Amino acid sequence: MDKSSTTDQQYLLPDMCRAISVLYVTLVAQLLAIILALNTSFIAGNFWTSLSLNALFILWVAFVCSAIFCGFKKRINKRPAISIILFMFFTINVITLLMTWVITFLLPQFELFIAPAQGNMSVYLRNGGISVIFSIILLRFLYIQHQWRRQTKAESEARLDALQARIRPHFLFNSLNTIASLTRIDPPLAESLTEDLAELFRANMQSSKRLVPFEQELTLVQQYLNIEQLRLGDRLTINIDVSTIPDDALIPPLSIQPLIENAIYHGIEPLEKGGKLEVLGRIENNKITLLIKNPLSDEALATVRPGHHMAIDNIRLRMQNCFPNNNQLLVSSSESEFQTQLKFPYQTEPA
Description:
Layout: H1 3-12, H2 19-44, H3 47-71, H4 73-77, H5 81-106, H6 121-182, H7 187-206, E1 212-213, H8 214-232, E2 236-241, E3 250-251, H9 257-268, E4 275-284, E5 287-295, H10 298-302, H11 308-322, E6 328-333, E7 337-345
Parallel strand pairs: 2-4
Antiparallel strand pairs: 1-3, 4-5, 5-7, 6-7
Helix pairs in contact: 1-6, 2-3, 3-5, 5-6, 6-7, 6-8, 6-11, 7-8, 9-11
């Protein structure tokens, strides 16, 4: 079974090892106890006694079931969805009947159940019936939530595929234009760069990963800068300092290269004397920050080329899809400098 299907099944069965899940279980148990007490208190005539007895019994059942789900979490998540539903249904109802037996026969002194005239069998039927109805409602809710999250994830991945499909031809088009400009100056070099670009794109297009190691993205950036360095010559000065960023940090593919392409295409190339491109990186508190700087003149600012914001908006959307609410893409400019700052969490495995 692949990793994506396992992730989908984890949505069906909440992680009962987490404190927040136990809190939700406690709240639901108390709500169910209140509903049952409101019903029985009109017969027994004592709401608070009924509430306390129901709450105690339901909490025992809920906590035992939560402990079982927590202990078997890894094994359960490897099973198909229908198996998970049947396991949860069986566990909830068996534990309910088991706890009923324990309290009725082993702990009668607690008097949690008011024994009716029909005998203890009616207690089993009552508790078992309530357990079956409640477990069906609960599992139906979890299944609907599971389906909704799968659909949301599929839509998110489809949007991400569309965004990446849009950025790749953009990169290819501009790279080929760059190589084309070298054909008149140095045809053998242009041919060599075309072969390098073909190999680079073959490897990139074959990868269906949503995230790639930072080292792989940096290699692409360096290969792109080699092409631009040959084209612009002394007009382009490059300073890259990202040594503190771990090579295994994950990032969406083609996230840095378009930002650098913007810096060269919109900032440095229009300047008569060119300028210096700086790419600085650091990691603090498990958060990676990349800063890209390029010079900007008044003439270049007044004649901004079209398409400047397309790559930025594209990357911002892709970062949001890969690192929801845990990323930033900021741009700022002054009279002489343009800066792009990219922030994202350091992680070595997809979330």
